[in-house]
Design brief:
The complex is a heterodimer of chains A (about 270) and B (about 90). With about 270 residues, chain A is of the alpha/beta class. Helices cover about 40% and strands about 15% of the residues of chain A. Chain A has 13 helices and eight strands. An eight-stranded mixed beta sheet of chain A has the order 3-4-2-5-1-6-7-8, sandwiched between helices. In chain A, α1 packs across α12. Chain B starts with a helix and ends in an 11-residue tail after the last strand. A two-stranded antiparallel sheet of chain B has the order 1-2. By secondary structure, chain B is α+β, with helices and mostly antiparallel strands. Classes of the chains: A alpha/beta (about 270), B alpha+beta (about 90).
Chain lengths: ~270, ~90
């Protein structure tokens, strides 16, 4: 049975697209057939983070409007054949996204894939609404920072009221997971950043993972590689842990240590 | 002995302030959201019940919910016309 998972946050810039790419690639690495979909119509970026931007021909909007077949719009990853990307339009308006269109595309994807990961745009308007509407589960990406936590709480309210599962009201509600990103243990120790427990106490949903603030995230995006493909990266390992929990493995919560440069390299002035 | 190291003075404790502000703010946010959904539904249902027994205008019901620290009050005002009930006798 295919699972539809939305990656959402309300606030922009917290790491939704990075997390979509990393979790999608993490699932695919384990052999699950996975597709990641960009719902940010007009501000296409998932293709860039996935490193397939030059292979995009058709997009989600073309499929919804009947100008292309779904198979023509799907881009298969060059590194993992179990991973596909469904990009969005860079030029169209977000009104091109319709509930019927999205429903039809998702139904077709469900026949082919095990996991459908929907990358929500920031905000709570049409694109964000439709990205979450058909979801079975939600990954709420949050930074330990006041505006991000507040927006996440707002999004949790929407997941509980403005989704198909909430409206039907008979089955299970959308299962929400918290993904805490850009976590900096040094700043927490100095009392400058809210610790994990405080954020958990406020949002009161299960924790999927803690992604440490890491220089590898920017490096991975520079070259268009989902961060889990960098095996030495602490953020990559943290995403791997989150993927394990997402598929139901019991794994102790841990904060992956930062890769500190060795003494020798530090002595040479971190030139590498 | 060790407490000297443990109680190393924190340079700031703005994180604690963040948590406290969020807890207060989100309590308000959440009840505002609940109220937003509740009041129109309550108004519709009350009007429906009252209409079963007397003739009132659709905009004759006014509902206010006020939240205080210790208690909240729900105020319902229904403007009733001077005529007799519909099913008198």
């Amino acid at each position: 049975m295919a699972k539809t998972i939305v990656v959402t946050s309300g606030k922009g810039g917290v790491g939704k697209t990075t997390s979509t790419a990393a979790i999608g690639a993490g699932l695919a690495k384990r052999g699950h057939k996975t597709v990641v979909i960009d719902f940010d119509v007009g501000l296409r970026n998932l293709d860039l983070i996935m490193g397939c931007e030059r292979r995009v021909v058709f997009d989600l909007i073309n499929v919804i409007q009947g100008d292309a077949k779904l198979k023509q719009a799907l881009v298969t990853d060059r590194r993992l054949d179990t991973l596909s990307v469904l990009p969005t339009s860079q030029t169209r308006d977000k009104d091109a996204l319709t509930p019927e269109g999205v429903e039809k595309v998702l139904a077709e994807l469900k026949e082919e894939f095990d996991y459908i990961i929907c990358d929500s745009p920031a905000g709570i308007e049409r694109g964000a609404h439709l990205a979450m509407y058909y979801a079975d589960e939600a990954i709420v990406v949050t930074n330990p920072e006041v505006s991000s936590v507040r927006d996440s709480d707002r999004v949790l309210g929407l997941l509980n009221s403005k989704t198909l599962r909430a409206e039907k009201g008979d089955g299970d509600p959308v299962k929400a997971h918290l993904l805490l990103t850009r976590y900096d243990t040094d700043r927490v120790a100095r009392g400058e950043m809210m610790p994990i427990d405080d954020v958990l106490e406020i949002l009161a949903i299960p924790l999927l993972g803690i992604i440490p603030e890491s220089t590898t995230v920017l490096r991975a995006s520079n070259v268009g590689m989902p961060v889990v493909m960098d095996e030495k990266s602490n953020a990559g390992r943290a995403y791997e842990d989150a993927v394990s929990r997402l598929i139901g493995e019991q794994l102790e919560m841990r904060i992956q240590p930062e890769e500190r440069p060795g003494l020798f390299r530090r002595f040479l002035g971190r030139r590498t | 002995m060790f407490s000297f190291f443990r109680q190393k003075p924190r340079r700031s404790d703005s994180a604690a302030a963040a948590k406290e502000r969020l807890q207060i703010l989100l309590a308000h946010d959440r009840s505002d959201r609940a109220r937003e959904d509740l009041l129109p539904l309550l108004q519709r249902d009350i009007l429906e019940v009252v209409k079963r027994h007397m003739r009132v205008e659709s905009d004759a019901v006014e509902i206010k919910l006020e939240r205080g620290d210790d208690m909240s009050s729900l105020e319902i005002n229904i403007e009733v016309p001077d005529t007799q009930p519909r099913h008198a006798g």
